[in-house]
Q: What sequence folds into this?
Protein backbone atom coordinates (compact mmCIF):
# COMPACT_ATOMS: atom_id res chain seq x y z
CA UNK A 1 0.00 0.00 0.00
CA UNK A 2 1.49 3.33 -1.08
CA UNK A 3 0.95 6.27 1.24
CA UNK A 4 1.68 9.73 -0.15
CA UNK A 5 2.80 12.74 1.85
CA UNK A 6 -0.11 15.06 2.67
CA UNK A 7 1.77 18.09 1.43
CA UNK A 8 1.65 16.55 -2.02
CA UNK A 9 -2.07 15.89 -1.68
CA UNK A 10 -2.83 19.52 -0.95
CA UNK A 11 -0.68 20.81 -3.77
CA UNK A 12 -2.88 22.55 -6.33
CA UNK A 13 -0.55 21.72 -9.22
CA UNK A 14 -0.68 17.95 -8.76
CA UNK A 15 -3.24 15.36 -9.81
CA UNK A 16 -5.47 13.82 -7.10
CA UNK A 17 -3.92 10.94 -5.22
CA UNK A 18 -5.62 7.62 -5.92
CA UNK A 19 -5.42 4.58 -3.68
CA UNK A 20 -6.78 1.14 -4.31
CA UNK A 21 -8.54 -0.76 -1.53
CA UNK A 22 -10.06 -4.19 -1.49
CA UNK A 23 -10.64 -5.24 2.11
CA UNK A 24 -13.54 -7.13 3.61
CA UNK A 25 -15.92 -5.39 5.98
CA UNK A 26 -18.36 -7.44 8.00
CA UNK A 27 -20.27 -5.08 10.28
CA UNK A 28 -21.35 -1.52 10.91
CA UNK A 29 -20.05 -1.69 14.49
CA UNK A 30 -16.57 -0.92 13.13
CA UNK A 31 -17.69 2.72 12.91
CA UNK A 32 -16.88 2.98 16.62
CA UNK A 33 -13.21 2.13 15.95
CA UNK A 34 -10.86 5.09 16.36
CA UNK A 35 -7.80 4.92 14.15
CA UNK A 36 -4.60 6.43 15.59
CA UNK A 37 -4.42 8.78 12.58
CA UNK A 38 -6.92 9.07 9.78
CA UNK A 39 -5.24 7.75 6.62
CA UNK A 40 -7.12 10.08 4.24
CA UNK A 41 -7.68 13.82 3.89
CA UNK A 42 -10.51 15.88 2.45
CA UNK A 43 -10.23 16.11 -1.33
CA UNK A 44 -8.22 12.92 -1.70
CA UNK A 45 -9.51 10.41 -4.26
CA UNK A 46 -9.49 6.67 -3.66
CA UNK A 47 -10.58 3.50 -5.42
CA UNK A 48 -12.67 1.57 -2.91
CA UNK A 49 -14.68 -1.61 -2.79
CA UNK A 50 -18.02 -1.42 -0.97
CA UNK A 51 -18.78 -4.37 1.28
CA UNK A 52 -21.84 -3.29 3.33
CA UNK A 53 -24.62 -0.73 3.66
CA UNK A 54 -24.66 1.63 6.64
CA UNK A 55 -27.93 2.92 8.08
CA UNK A 56 -29.16 5.65 5.74
CA UNK A 57 -27.95 3.85 2.62
CA UNK A 58 -24.32 4.88 2.27
CA UNK A 59 -21.86 2.21 1.21
CA UNK A 60 -19.27 1.08 3.75
CA UNK A 61 -15.57 0.52 2.95
CA UNK A 62 -12.76 -0.10 5.41
CA UNK A 63 -9.11 0.86 5.43
CA UNK A 64 -6.43 -1.36 6.99
CA UNK A 65 -6.44 -0.84 10.74
CA UNK A 66 -10.19 -0.31 10.93
CA UNK A 67 -10.71 3.14 9.39
CA UNK A 68 -14.11 3.36 7.71
CA UNK A 69 -15.28 5.33 4.67
CA UNK A 70 -18.99 5.94 4.11
CA UNK A 71 -19.51 6.55 0.40
CA UNK A 72 -22.67 8.03 -1.11
CA UNK A 73 -24.31 5.68 -3.63
CA UNK A 74 -21.76 2.90 -3.27
CA UNK A 75 -23.42 -0.53 -3.18
CA UNK A 76 -22.00 -3.79 -1.74
CA UNK A 77 -19.97 -5.64 -4.36
CA UNK A 78 -19.31 -2.46 -6.30
CA UNK A 79 -15.87 -0.90 -6.79
CA UNK A 80 -15.91 2.88 -7.18
CA UNK A 81 -13.63 5.86 -7.63
CA UNK A 82 -14.58 8.25 -4.80
CA UNK A 83 -13.58 11.63 -3.36
CA UNK A 84 -13.25 12.18 0.40
CA UNK A 85 -15.59 15.00 1.45
CA UNK A 86 -15.38 15.00 5.26
CA UNK A 87 -13.59 13.51 8.27
CA UNK A 88 -16.13 12.82 11.02
CA UNK A 89 -16.29 12.17 14.78
CA UNK A 90 -12.78 13.36 15.48
CA UNK A 91 -11.28 11.05 12.89
CA UNK A 92 -13.41 7.97 13.53
CA UNK A 93 -14.53 7.71 9.91
CA UNK A 94 -14.64 9.59 6.61
CA UNK A 95 -17.39 10.47 4.16
CA UNK A 96 -17.05 10.32 0.38
CA UNK A 97 -18.98 10.73 -2.84
CA UNK A 98 -18.87 8.32 -5.75
CA UNK A 99 -17.29 9.84 -8.85
CA UNK A 100 -17.20 6.79 -11.12
CA UNK A 101 -18.20 3.13 -11.03
CA UNK A 102 -15.17 0.94 -11.73
CA UNK A 103 -16.94 -2.40 -11.31
CA UNK A 104 -20.71 -2.88 -11.02
CA UNK A 105 -22.39 -4.66 -8.15
CA UNK A 106 -23.94 -8.08 -8.90
CA UNK A 107 -27.30 -6.42 -8.17
CA UNK A 108 -26.87 -3.76 -10.86
CA UNK A 109 -29.75 -2.94 -13.23
CA UNK A 110 -30.10 -0.14 -15.75
CA UNK A 111 -31.71 2.93 -14.20
CA UNK A 112 -34.83 4.04 -16.15
CA UNK A 113 -33.96 7.72 -15.79
CA UNK A 114 -31.45 9.86 -17.76
CA UNK A 115 -30.82 12.06 -14.71
CA UNK A 116 -29.97 9.28 -12.27
CA UNK A 117 -26.18 9.66 -12.22
CA UNK A 118 -26.46 13.30 -11.09
CA UNK A 119 -29.83 13.54 -9.33
CA UNK A 120 -30.29 12.96 -5.60
CA UNK A 121 -33.95 11.93 -5.86
CA UNK A 122 -33.24 8.19 -6.18
CA UNK A 123 -30.28 6.42 -4.59
CA UNK A 124 -30.91 2.81 -5.60
CA UNK A 125 -32.66 3.16 -8.95
CA UNK A 126 -29.83 1.04 -10.44
CA UNK A 127 -30.14 -1.74 -7.81
CA UNK A 128 -32.41 -4.78 -8.29
CA UNK A 129 -35.59 -4.23 -6.27
CA UNK A 130 -35.42 -7.52 -4.32
CA UNK A 131 -31.94 -6.55 -3.15
CA UNK A 132 -33.18 -3.09 -2.12
CA UNK A 133 -35.68 -4.83 0.15
CA UNK A 134 -32.95 -7.02 1.63
CA UNK A 135 -30.78 -3.96 2.35
CA UNK A 136 -33.68 -2.21 4.07
CA UNK A 137 -34.60 -5.15 6.27
CA UNK A 138 -30.94 -5.57 7.23
CA UNK A 139 -30.86 -1.94 8.36
CA UNK A 140 -33.91 -2.45 10.56
CA UNK A 141 -32.40 -5.57 12.10
CA UNK A 142 -29.14 -3.71 12.70
CA UNK A 143 -30.64 -0.72 14.57
CA UNK A 144 -32.96 -2.93 16.61
CA UNK A 145 -29.93 -4.99 17.65
CA UNK A 146 -27.45 -2.16 18.29
CA UNK A 147 -29.70 0.65 19.54
CA UNK A 148 -32.82 -1.03 20.93
CA UNK A 149 -30.64 -3.89 22.31
CA UNK A 150 -33.02 -6.59 21.06
CA UNK A 151 -31.13 -9.89 21.20
CA UNK A 152 -33.24 -11.79 18.68
CA UNK A 153 -34.02 -8.93 16.27
CA UNK A 154 -33.51 -11.08 13.18
CA UNK A 155 -36.36 -13.32 14.34
CA UNK A 156 -38.66 -10.48 15.38
CA UNK A 157 -38.26 -8.35 12.24
CA UNK A 158 -40.75 -9.54 9.62
CA UNK A 159 -40.09 -9.80 5.91
CA UNK A 160 -40.49 -6.32 4.43
CA UNK A 161 -43.74 -5.57 2.58
CA UNK A 162 -42.76 -4.63 -1.00
CA UNK A 163 -44.26 -1.62 -2.72
CA UNK A 164 -47.09 -2.44 -5.13
CA UNK A 165 -45.99 0.43 -7.36
CA UNK A 166 -42.25 1.02 -7.85
CA UNK A 167 -42.26 3.94 -10.28
CA UNK A 168 -44.60 6.93 -10.43
CA UNK A 169 -45.65 6.18 -6.85
CA UNK A 170 -45.24 9.56 -5.14
CA UNK A 171 -48.25 11.83 -4.60
CA UNK A 172 -46.05 14.75 -3.56
CA UNK A 173 -42.76 16.09 -4.93
CA UNK A 174 -40.87 19.26 -4.02
CA UNK A 175 -38.50 20.94 -6.46
CA UNK A 176 -36.00 23.62 -5.46
CA UNK A 177 -35.37 26.81 -7.38
CA UNK A 178 -31.78 27.81 -8.14
CA UNK A 179 -30.06 30.34 -10.33
CA UNK A 180 -28.40 28.87 -13.42
CA UNK A 181 -25.59 30.72 -15.17
CA UNK A 182 -23.78 33.89 -14.16
CA UNK A 183 -24.40 35.03 -10.58
CA UNK A 184 -25.64 38.44 -11.65
CA UNK A 185 -27.83 37.49 -14.61
CA UNK A 186 -28.46 33.76 -14.36
CA UNK A 187 -31.99 32.58 -15.10
CA UNK A 188 -34.18 30.94 -12.43
CA UNK A 189 -34.44 27.17 -12.83
CA UNK A 190 -35.94 24.38 -10.74
CA UNK A 191 -35.25 20.69 -10.16
CA UNK A 192 -33.88 18.23 -7.64
CA UNK A 193 -30.64 18.52 -5.70
CA UNK A 194 -27.64 16.36 -6.63
CA UNK A 195 -26.71 13.68 -4.09
CA UNK A 196 -24.92 15.28 -1.14
CA UNK A 197 -25.22 18.79 -2.61
CA UNK A 198 -27.58 21.39 -1.10
CA UNK A 199 -26.82 24.15 -3.60
CA UNK A 200 -26.57 22.43 -7.00
CA UNK A 201 -29.52 21.61 -9.24
CA UNK A 202 -30.55 18.88 -11.67
CA UNK A 203 -33.25 20.11 -14.06
CA UNK A 204 -35.58 17.19 -14.73
CA UNK A 205 -38.37 18.89 -16.71
CA UNK A 206 -36.98 17.73 -20.07
CA UNK A 207 -37.88 14.07 -19.45
CA UNK A 208 -39.83 14.33 -16.21
CA UNK A 209 -39.31 12.49 -12.92
CA UNK A 210 -40.01 8.76 -12.73
CA UNK A 211 -41.09 9.07 -9.09
CA UNK A 212 -44.09 11.33 -9.69
CA UNK A 213 -47.27 11.01 -11.72
CA UNK A 214 -47.07 11.64 -15.48
CA UNK A 215 -49.51 14.55 -15.24
CA UNK A 216 -47.14 16.26 -12.80
CA UNK A 217 -44.46 16.14 -15.50
CA UNK A 218 -46.77 18.30 -17.65
CA UNK A 219 -46.72 20.96 -14.94
CA UNK A 220 -42.92 20.92 -14.80
CA UNK A 221 -42.66 21.33 -18.55
CA UNK A 222 -45.16 24.23 -18.61
CA UNK A 223 -43.44 26.01 -15.72
CA UNK A 224 -40.04 25.68 -17.40
CA UNK A 225 -41.43 26.93 -20.73
CA UNK A 226 -43.04 29.94 -19.06
CA UNK A 227 -39.84 30.96 -17.28
CA UNK A 228 -37.76 30.49 -20.44
CA UNK A 229 -40.16 32.66 -22.47
CA UNK A 230 -40.44 35.45 -19.90
CA UNK A 231 -38.49 38.61 -20.73
CA UNK A 232 -36.22 39.87 -17.92
CA UNK A 233 -37.11 36.80 -15.86
CA UNK A 234 -33.87 37.06 -13.85
CA UNK A 235 -34.81 40.54 -12.69
CA UNK A 236 -38.53 39.98 -12.22
CA UNK A 237 -38.45 36.54 -10.56
CA UNK A 238 -35.00 36.00 -9.05
CA UNK A 239 -34.33 32.94 -6.94
CA UNK A 240 -34.76 33.40 -3.18
CA UNK A 241 -31.47 33.47 -1.28
CA UNK A 242 -31.89 32.02 2.23
CA UNK A 243 -28.66 33.62 3.43
CA UNK A 244 -29.46 37.18 2.37
CA UNK A 245 -33.27 36.97 2.44
CA UNK A 246 -33.40 38.50 -1.04
CA UNK A 247 -35.13 37.10 -4.13
CA UNK A 248 -38.53 35.59 -4.87
CA UNK A 249 -38.79 31.96 -6.02
CA UNK A 250 -38.01 29.31 -3.39
CA UNK A 251 -39.68 25.99 -4.25
CA UNK A 252 -42.31 24.32 -6.42
CA UNK A 253 -44.35 21.54 -4.81
CA UNK A 254 -46.77 19.29 -6.70
CA UNK A 255 -49.43 17.19 -4.96
CA UNK A 256 -51.42 14.69 -7.01
CA UNK A 257 -54.54 12.65 -6.31
CA UNK A 258 -56.90 10.46 -8.34
CA UNK A 259 -60.02 12.39 -9.28
CA UNK A 260 -62.29 10.66 -11.78
CA UNK A 261 -63.65 12.80 -14.55
CA UNK A 262 -61.50 15.85 -13.76
CA UNK A 263 -58.69 15.39 -16.27
CA UNK A 264 -56.75 13.01 -18.46
CA UNK A 265 -55.52 10.05 -16.42
CA UNK A 266 -58.10 10.89 -13.74
CA UNK A 267 -55.47 12.65 -11.68
CA UNK A 268 -55.62 16.18 -10.29
CA UNK A 269 -52.64 18.34 -9.35
CA UNK A 270 -52.25 20.97 -6.65
CA UNK A 271 -49.42 23.39 -7.47
CA UNK A 272 -47.75 25.12 -4.51
CA UNK A 273 -45.23 27.88 -5.24
CA UNK A 274 -43.22 29.14 -2.27
CA UNK A 275 -42.19 32.72 -3.01
CA UNK A 276 -41.24 35.92 -1.14
CA UNK A 277 -43.41 38.70 -2.58
CA UNK A 278 -44.08 40.95 0.43
CA UNK A 279 -41.26 43.41 -0.33
CA UNK A 280 -41.43 43.15 -4.12
CA UNK A 281 -42.65 45.75 -6.59
CA UNK A 282 -45.73 45.75 -8.80
CA UNK A 283 -43.95 44.29 -11.86
CA UNK A 284 -42.61 41.29 -9.92
CA UNK A 285 -46.02 40.56 -8.42
CA UNK A 286 -47.55 40.84 -11.88
CA UNK A 287 -44.97 38.39 -13.30
CA UNK A 288 -45.65 35.93 -10.49
CA UNK A 289 -49.42 36.17 -11.04
CA UNK A 290 -48.89 35.48 -14.75
CA UNK A 291 -46.90 32.34 -13.96
CA UNK A 292 -49.60 31.09 -11.58
CA UNK A 293 -52.36 31.86 -14.09
CA UNK A 294 -50.51 29.99 -16.84
CA UNK A 295 -50.12 26.87 -14.68
CA UNK A 296 -53.81 27.05 -13.75
CA UNK A 297 -54.80 26.59 -17.41
CA UNK A 298 -53.31 23.05 -17.55
CA UNK A 299 -56.21 20.61 -17.73
CA UNK A 300 -54.98 18.52 -14.79
CA UNK A 301 -54.30 21.42 -12.42
CA UNK A 302 -57.01 21.64 -9.78
CA UNK A 303 -55.56 24.52 -7.78
CA UNK A 304 -52.58 26.87 -7.58
CA UNK A 305 -51.43 28.07 -4.17
CA UNK A 306 -48.94 30.74 -3.13
CA UNK A 307 -46.99 29.86 0.01
CA UNK A 308 -45.69 33.19 1.22
CA UNK A 309 -42.10 33.22 2.44
CA UNK A 310 -42.11 35.82 5.21
CA UNK A 311 -39.38 37.54 7.19
CA UNK A 312 -40.39 35.63 10.33
CA UNK A 313 -40.38 32.24 8.51
CA UNK A 314 -44.08 31.81 9.37
CA UNK A 315 -45.29 31.06 5.86
CA UNK A 316 -48.86 32.01 5.01
CA UNK A 317 -51.03 30.36 2.37
CA UNK A 318 -52.94 32.20 -0.34
CA UNK A 319 -55.08 30.21 -2.77
CA UNK A 320 -54.79 31.82 -6.22
CA UNK A 321 -56.89 29.38 -8.25
CA UNK A 322 -59.24 26.53 -7.32
CA UNK A 323 -59.97 24.89 -3.93
CA UNK A 324 -57.67 25.03 -0.90
CA UNK A 325 -57.50 21.25 -0.51
CA UNK A 326 -56.87 18.13 -2.55
CA UNK A 327 -58.55 14.83 -1.65
CA UNK A 328 -57.13 11.31 -1.39
CA UNK A 329 -59.23 8.23 -0.58
CA UNK A 330 -57.78 5.57 1.70
CA UNK A 331 -59.71 2.44 2.67
CA UNK A 332 -63.00 4.15 1.89
CA UNK A 333 -62.21 7.28 3.92
CA UNK A 334 -61.81 10.53 1.96
CA UNK A 335 -59.04 12.77 3.27
CA UNK A 336 -59.09 16.44 2.26
CA UNK A 337 -55.52 17.71 2.53
CA UNK A 338 -54.55 21.35 2.91
CA UNK A 339 -51.15 22.67 1.88
CA UNK A 340 -49.34 22.12 5.20
CA UNK A 341 -50.92 18.79 6.09
CA UNK A 342 -48.77 15.67 6.02
CA UNK A 343 -49.91 12.53 4.22
CA UNK A 344 -48.02 9.39 3.24
CA UNK A 345 -46.41 10.05 -0.15
CA UNK A 346 -47.05 6.53 -1.52
CA UNK A 347 -50.84 6.27 -1.62
CA UNK A 348 -51.12 2.63 -2.65
CA UNK A 349 -48.58 1.51 -0.08
CA UNK A 350 -50.31 3.62 2.57
CA UNK A 351 -53.17 1.12 2.27
CA UNK A 352 -50.75 -1.65 3.29
CA UNK A 353 -49.38 0.50 6.11
CA UNK A 354 -52.84 1.17 7.57
CA UNK A 355 -53.75 -2.50 7.25
CA UNK A 356 -50.56 -3.47 9.09
CA UNK A 357 -51.24 -0.92 11.84
CA UNK A 358 -54.78 -2.25 12.26
CA UNK A 359 -53.49 -5.80 12.64
CA UNK A 360 -50.86 -4.57 15.10
CA UNK A 361 -53.54 -2.92 17.26
CA UNK A 362 -55.22 -6.35 17.68
CA UNK A 363 -58.69 -4.81 18.05
CA UNK A 364 -61.50 -7.18 18.99
CA UNK A 365 -63.81 -5.72 16.34
CA UNK A 366 -66.52 -5.23 18.97
CA UNK A 367 -66.02 -1.46 19.28
CA UNK A 368 -64.77 -1.79 22.85
CA UNK A 369 -61.27 -0.29 22.64
CA UNK A 370 -60.22 3.34 22.99
CA UNK A 371 -57.41 4.39 20.63
CA UNK A 372 -55.04 7.27 21.35
CA UNK A 373 -53.53 8.43 18.03
CA UNK A 374 -50.49 10.64 18.69
CA UNK A 375 -48.88 12.69 15.90
CA UNK A 376 -52.12 11.94 14.06
CA UNK A 377 -51.75 14.41 11.17
CA UNK A 378 -55.00 14.55 9.23
CA UNK A 379 -56.26 11.49 11.12
CA UNK A 380 -55.03 8.83 8.70
CA UNK A 381 -54.78 5.92 11.14
CA UNK A 382 -57.48 6.97 13.58
CA UNK A 383 -60.21 7.63 11.02
CA UNK A 384 -59.43 4.41 9.12
CA UNK A 385 -59.70 2.41 12.37
CA UNK A 386 -62.64 4.31 13.92
CA UNK A 387 -65.25 1.83 12.67
CA UNK A 388 -63.68 -0.87 14.85
CA UNK A 389 -63.04 1.23 17.96
CA UNK A 390 -65.18 2.64 20.77
CA UNK A 391 -63.56 6.03 20.33
CA UNK A 392 -60.46 7.53 18.69
CA UNK A 393 -58.61 10.48 20.20
CA UNK A 394 -56.02 12.15 17.98
CA UNK A 395 -53.37 14.71 18.86
CA UNK A 396 -51.23 16.76 16.44
CA UNK A 397 -49.07 19.90 16.64
CA UNK A 398 -49.88 21.36 13.18
CA UNK A 399 -53.15 23.32 13.55
CA UNK A 400 -54.02 23.06 9.85
CA UNK A 401 -53.74 19.25 10.02
CA UNK A 402 -55.99 19.16 13.11
CA UNK A 403 -58.63 21.21 11.31
CA UNK A 404 -58.33 18.85 8.32
CA UNK A 405 -58.80 15.86 10.65
CA UNK A 406 -61.94 17.38 12.19
CA UNK A 407 -63.39 18.20 8.77
CA UNK A 408 -62.51 14.74 7.48
CA UNK A 409 -64.33 13.13 10.39
CA UNK A 410 -67.45 15.18 9.69
CA UNK A 411 -67.27 14.65 5.91
CA UNK A 412 -67.00 10.87 6.38
CA UNK A 413 -69.74 10.83 9.08
CA UNK A 414 -67.36 9.46 11.69
CA UNK A 415 -68.79 10.48 15.05
CA UNK A 416 -66.47 8.58 17.41
CA UNK A 417 -63.32 10.64 16.73
CA UNK A 418 -61.99 13.65 18.62
CA UNK A 419 -58.91 15.68 17.67
CA UNK A 420 -56.79 18.16 19.63
CA UNK A 421 -53.97 20.49 18.71
CA UNK A 422 -51.01 20.19 21.09
CA UNK A 423 -47.22 19.99 21.14
CA UNK A 424 -46.56 16.47 22.39
CA UNK A 425 -43.02 17.44 23.40
CA UNK A 426 -44.57 19.80 25.96
CA UNK A 427 -46.83 17.30 27.72
CA UNK A 428 -46.32 16.99 31.46
CA UNK A 429 -47.04 14.51 34.24
CA UNK A 430 -49.63 16.98 35.56
CA UNK A 431 -51.93 15.89 32.71
CA UNK A 432 -52.16 12.38 34.20
CA UNK A 433 -54.76 11.37 36.74
CA UNK A 434 -54.97 8.16 38.74
CA UNK A 435 -57.88 5.74 38.60
CA UNK A 436 -59.11 5.07 42.13
CA UNK A 437 -60.29 1.56 41.21
CA UNK A 438 -57.07 0.33 39.62
CA UNK A 439 -53.36 1.06 39.28
CA UNK A 440 -53.92 2.62 35.85
CA UNK A 441 -53.83 6.28 34.86
CA UNK A 442 -55.69 8.42 32.37
CA UNK A 443 -54.55 11.47 30.43
CA UNK A 444 -56.49 14.73 30.33
CA UNK A 445 -56.88 16.78 27.13
CA UNK A 446 -59.16 19.76 27.76
CA UNK A 447 -62.46 18.34 29.01
CA UNK A 448 -61.67 14.80 27.88
CA UNK A 449 -60.26 12.23 30.28
CA UNK A 450 -58.82 9.44 28.13
CA UNK A 451 -57.90 5.96 29.30
CA UNK A 452 -56.59 4.29 26.13
CA UNK A 453 -56.35 0.59 25.41
CA UNK A 454 -54.05 1.11 22.44
CA UNK A 455 -51.82 4.01 21.48
CA UNK A 456 -50.55 4.66 17.95
CA UNK A 457 -47.54 6.97 17.65
CA UNK A 458 -46.19 8.23 14.32
CA UNK A 459 -43.65 10.97 15.13
CA UNK A 460 -41.34 12.88 12.82
CA UNK A 461 -37.87 11.54 12.02
CA UNK A 462 -36.51 12.87 15.31
CA UNK A 463 -38.69 10.44 17.24
CA UNK A 464 -40.39 11.03 20.60
CA UNK A 465 -39.36 13.43 23.33
CA UNK A 466 -38.17 11.69 26.51
CA UNK A 467 -41.01 13.34 28.43
CA UNK A 468 -43.57 11.70 26.14
CA UNK A 469 -41.86 8.32 26.56
CA UNK A 470 -42.13 8.71 30.35
CA UNK A 471 -45.81 9.66 30.09
CA UNK A 472 -46.57 6.61 27.96
CA UNK A 473 -44.86 4.40 30.52
CA UNK A 474 -46.76 6.12 33.33
CA UNK A 475 -50.06 5.52 31.54
CA UNK A 476 -49.26 1.81 31.31
CA UNK A 477 -51.20 1.34 28.07
CA UNK A 478 -51.45 -2.38 27.26
CA UNK A 479 -50.24 -2.01 23.67
CA UNK A 480 -48.17 0.58 21.80
CA UNK A 481 -47.99 0.58 18.01
CA UNK A 482 -45.08 2.78 16.94
CA UNK A 483 -44.83 3.83 13.28
CA UNK A 484 -41.67 5.55 12.08
CA UNK A 485 -39.84 6.61 8.92
CA UNK A 486 -36.58 6.59 10.92
CA UNK A 487 -35.93 3.17 12.51
CA UNK A 488 -32.81 4.52 14.28
CA UNK A 489 -34.68 7.03 16.49
CA UNK A 490 -37.50 4.50 16.78
CA UNK A 491 -35.02 1.94 18.14
CA UNK A 492 -33.75 4.54 20.64
CA UNK A 493 -37.31 5.07 21.90
CA UNK A 494 -37.96 1.33 22.01
CA UNK A 495 -34.93 0.96 24.29
CA UNK A 496 -36.43 3.59 26.63
CA UNK A 497 -39.87 1.97 26.62
CA UNK A 498 -38.35 -1.42 27.41
CA UNK A 499 -36.07 0.01 30.13
CA UNK A 500 -36.21 -1.89 33.44
CA UNK A 501 -35.89 1.35 35.42
CA UNK A 502 -39.06 2.24 37.32
CA UNK A 503 -37.93 5.45 39.03
CA UNK A 504 -39.62 8.78 38.43
CA UNK A 505 -39.52 12.06 40.29
CA UNK A 506 -42.87 11.27 41.87
CA UNK A 507 -41.82 7.75 42.79
CA UNK A 508 -44.56 6.19 40.67
CA UNK A 509 -44.05 2.85 38.99
CA UNK A 510 -43.32 2.98 35.26
CA UNK A 511 -44.64 0.26 32.99
CA UNK A 512 -42.11 -1.80 31.12
CA UNK A 513 -42.70 -3.05 27.56
CA UNK A 514 -41.37 -5.81 25.39
CA UNK A 515 -41.02 -5.77 21.63
CA UNK A 516 -43.19 -8.51 20.17
CA UNK A 517 -43.20 -7.64 16.47
CA UNK A 518 -41.40 -5.47 13.94
CA UNK A 519 -42.99 -4.87 10.52
CA UNK A 520 -40.99 -2.97 7.86
CA UNK A 521 -42.99 -1.58 4.93
CA UNK A 522 -41.41 -0.18 1.76
CA UNK A 523 -43.05 3.16 1.03
CA UNK A 524 -40.01 4.59 -0.76
CA UNK A 525 -38.73 2.33 -3.58
CA UNK A 526 -35.26 3.13 -4.97
CA UNK A 527 -34.24 5.01 -1.82
CA UNK A 528 -32.68 3.73 1.44
CA UNK A 529 -35.70 4.94 3.43
CA UNK A 530 -38.06 2.45 5.06
CA UNK A 531 -41.21 2.78 7.15
CA UNK A 532 -41.21 0.55 10.20
CA UNK A 533 -43.92 -0.54 12.63
CA UNK A 534 -43.02 -1.93 16.04
CA UNK A 535 -45.55 -3.52 18.38
CA UNK A 536 -44.86 -3.21 22.10
CA UNK A 537 -46.75 -5.12 24.76
CA UNK A 538 -46.85 -4.19 28.43
CA UNK A 539 -44.98 -6.59 30.71
CA UNK A 540 -46.71 -7.61 33.98
CA UNK A 541 -45.27 -5.84 37.00
CA UNK A 542 -42.72 -7.66 39.16
CA UNK A 543 -44.51 -6.23 42.20
CA UNK A 544 -47.36 -8.66 41.83
CA UNK A 545 -49.81 -6.53 39.90
CA UNK A 546 -50.03 -5.00 36.45
CA UNK A 547 -49.61 -1.28 36.07
CA UNK A 548 -52.75 -1.15 33.94
CA UNK A 549 -55.62 -3.58 34.31
A:
Amino acid sequence: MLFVRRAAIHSACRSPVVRTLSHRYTGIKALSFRAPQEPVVIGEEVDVECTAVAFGGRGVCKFPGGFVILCERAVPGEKVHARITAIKKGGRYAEAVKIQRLRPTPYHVNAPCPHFDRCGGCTWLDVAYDQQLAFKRDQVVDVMTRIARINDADRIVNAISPSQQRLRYRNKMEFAFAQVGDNSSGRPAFGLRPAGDHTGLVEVFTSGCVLQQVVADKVLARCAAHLHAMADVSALLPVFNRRTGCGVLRSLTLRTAPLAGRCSGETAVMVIIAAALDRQGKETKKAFAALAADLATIDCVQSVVHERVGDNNENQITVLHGPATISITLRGVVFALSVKSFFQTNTKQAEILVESVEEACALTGENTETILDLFCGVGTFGLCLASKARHVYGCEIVPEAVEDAKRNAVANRIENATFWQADLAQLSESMLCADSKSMSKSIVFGKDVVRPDVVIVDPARSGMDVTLVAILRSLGIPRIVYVSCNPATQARDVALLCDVSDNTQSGDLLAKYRLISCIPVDLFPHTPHVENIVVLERVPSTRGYEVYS
In short: The longest helix spans residues 129-146.
